Amino acid sequence: MIRYLSATFKKSYILAEMETRKLLHDPTELISRAVQPILWLGIFGEALSKVRAIPTGGLTYLQFITPGILTQSVVFVAIFYGLYIIMDRDTGILQKLLVTPTPRLALVWGKMISAGLRGLSQALIVFIFALILGIPLVITVWSVAGVIVIVMLGAGFFTGLSMIIASIVKTRERFMGIGQVITLPLFFASNAIYPVSIMPGWLQVVATVNPLSYMVDGLRTLMLPGVAGGGVGFDILVLAVVTLLISMLSAWFYPKVVM
Amino acid sequence: MVKYNHVIIEVNNLVKRFKDFAAVDSISFGVEAGEVFAFLGPNGAGKSTTIKMLITLLKPTSGTATIGGYDIVRNPSDVRNVIGYVPQMISVDGTLTATENLMLMARLYDIPVRERAIRVKEMLSFLKLEEHANALVRTFSGGMIRKMEVGQAMVHRPKALLLDEPTTGLDPIARQSVWEHLLDLRNRFGTTIFFSTHNMEEADEVSDRVAIMNRGKIAAIGTAEELKTKAGKQGATLEDAFIFLTGNKLQEAAGNFREIRRTRQNERRLG
After folding, report:
1. Which of A14, A193, A228, B7 places its Cα 20 to 30 Å from the Cα of B215?
2. Through-space distance between the first and last CA atoms of chain B, rounded to whole angstroms
3. Is B87 in contact with A18 (Cβ distance < 8 A)?
């Protein structure tokens, strides 16, 4: 058991490191990914902040949505991560990895960690752009550490979900279709761009079980002055538990053999 | 435990059924240490399925097989440590450098820290790829890519190397270069080389022994010369032997859409 866990940690780290090296060899993706959050904050956020129709509890609307936009950009990276399994499966990379003495859980964690690191690069961009727009944020050692933990866990959860979908549907076309279908509902059925309190009852239920809401709640509490959310500790606990569970489920669904 | 010191791969009545279809229908054979052993047959003959069972990715329906004395069902992780596998599809990562690709395997196979860099360097020089050590693999030619894949499968110095259609889609020069390296590996380290192919000439030229597989069964095993003799005519080729032994032309079985698409994609990428 201990040997299995230490092997899993070690191999996850190796795989995540290789994913990061790939990204560093060709960082254009990081730059193109930065466009979306900038548009959401710079255009959507600026426009809606003039309307003042959404109750934000004493915050400006831009302040209110900054953690939501950060969450969205992290989740959108992660939710398409399963595509890498399909690509590795279509080539022989997956087969070769499956024949090495690497626990399947490590193959899953490796991707989760690497999605988390991409998420952190998104977080950096959102922070910088928010400061350029003059949005007041709390930046202390503790708040930044908390943001890192939540981004890593949240990216991990949605990567796990994405890998399960990819393992089931197997083809790129089907996967992209499902990915497109679930991203926006996930985002809208959360507290990312408006508070849960203004939603109809049934949607409030959805928002409460949506892990994305816990990311937003935790990030909002950490990043914004004077916000008391559901408690950062509770948000992190929820995210840690669901991420661990989904990683085990994802390892179980992970392709066993490629014919 | 090891039964015979000289037999490295031993297969006994191995069967794999998918629903009603027997992809591998009770085959038995042995491969000796240091041998170059060709598994010859058309697409859909059951070659890949047999290899998938040997590399422990697919559980046999019945029968047994051992590699290096380890049972593929009972001791899969021991089997994995004594084999290297080169899939038919491209298995190097084009977005990593040659060194990184080899280092990844060295680390996944738990090669001690101090030895990793040495092994990777040795492998690069063995494959004559030192000049390209830090180039991204996607810039490589088809032959270089295949050599990299062999290198990846060899960093942990396995006793047996299993290759699925290693030269499909390679031009003749690249094919020759890949085989020079494979035979050199065998000569230097005594690595057993087990490969599947549907190419008659290739099986004839490089292998010590050939097993002809057709519709899930092994039709005959022997040296290429022995098999040709069985065809019973003067100057018979391995193709004649194949037709005589199976009643089939090699090209007849076409494979499904997915297989063909894969082969073509591979050819284009390696081309």
Report:
1. B7
2. 44
3. no
